[in-house]
What we know:
Elements: H1 5-53, H2 71-78, E1 88-107, E2 120-140, E3 144-167, E4 171-180, E5 184-195, E6 197-198, E7 210-229, E8 232-235, E9 239-240, E10 245-265, E11 268-286, E12 299-317, E13 322-335, E14 338-343, E15 349-371
Antiparallel strand pairs: 1-2, 1-15, 2-3, 3-4, 3-5, 4-8, 5-7, 6-7, 7-10, 8-9, 10-11, 11-12, 12-13, 12-14, 13-15, 14-15
Amino acid sequence: MRLFPKGLLYLSIFCFTVLVLTFPTLASADVLSDQRDVKIAQELDCVARAYQESQSYDWSDLCYTATPANSAQNLDANLDGWDEPQLVTASFDVFAGYRIDDLNFNIAGNTSGTDPNILSELTWSDLQSYQIQGQGEVVILDKIVLEGSAAYARIFSGDNQDSDYLGADRTGEFSRSNNAADVGHMNDFSGGLGYRINLEKVLDIYPVEKLSVTPLVGYAYNAQNLRMQDGYSTIPASGAFGGLNSKYETQWKGLWLGTEIAAKAEKLTGSVRFEYHFLDYYADADWNLRSDFQHPKSFEHSADGSGFVISTKFGYELTENWQLSFKVDYHNYETERGIDKTFFSSGTILDTQLNVVNWYSYAISGGLKYSF
């Protein structure tokens, strides 16, 4: 699978980010080990000196500080951060929110991308929907991360435009309809595996209590069920026409690489995540008013693509187990050139070039998180 050119830039940024964030931990691993050995040696030396002075002593008096009364407190502080990690922790989030999507595609007149270079163009814009989403995470030994998420969005408002051209570069427009797109839905699924690197022992950032970076790899599936209804012909200007109920259903799926940076300060938590996706794209359509097309599948699209996802999440701890959460998600996907395969009612199948498919999505959500 080839990446479109700007995909290389996004991938380079991702790799550079991971290297920069993980280098301090890798570089300081030996230093941390040496510091722990020094602390243990100091404690053993303290035990030996105390035993020489008196064979009756209390453990709370054993400390290499000058004030025995603070020995237990100093010892706890010196050995802080060396606790055994928990075997398994888990959490689950439920979010509800508002989402806006845009999707467009255009095709050429032939498989060479000419005659004309843009023959037909479809745009779904300002698709507004209500979304519900669930996310789960399991962490083993504070390091191995298993995660999954699922989301469903129901469209309640949106617009569609369908344009056809005779000339190159969108000239000679001979047909345009502006239609309603307030029916449909979207589904998103994702799963990932990561390795969490805890940085609070390396980077002393006040008032951050916990700081981590987690490189991740995963697989995602995104689908849109889009509709065209309430037809209105703008070119020619014949106005409203009835019976329009065409659909375009998409699938974006593939592997992704990502990294997440998370921090905690008292009751506040926050995270930023970047994912780069390698995509296989497929879509099929039913143009219900075209008697010259087959039904229920009038044409299909296939292409390779790539894109990225950026997510930010903030939380406020209500109790030890419950957290109030707020998040913002952004998707930006794009295909390379692909194939548009049209199925005519006569039985003929005609291929032409699919120039590009673009999908953008913004979502703002609030919810609750429960930690086990």
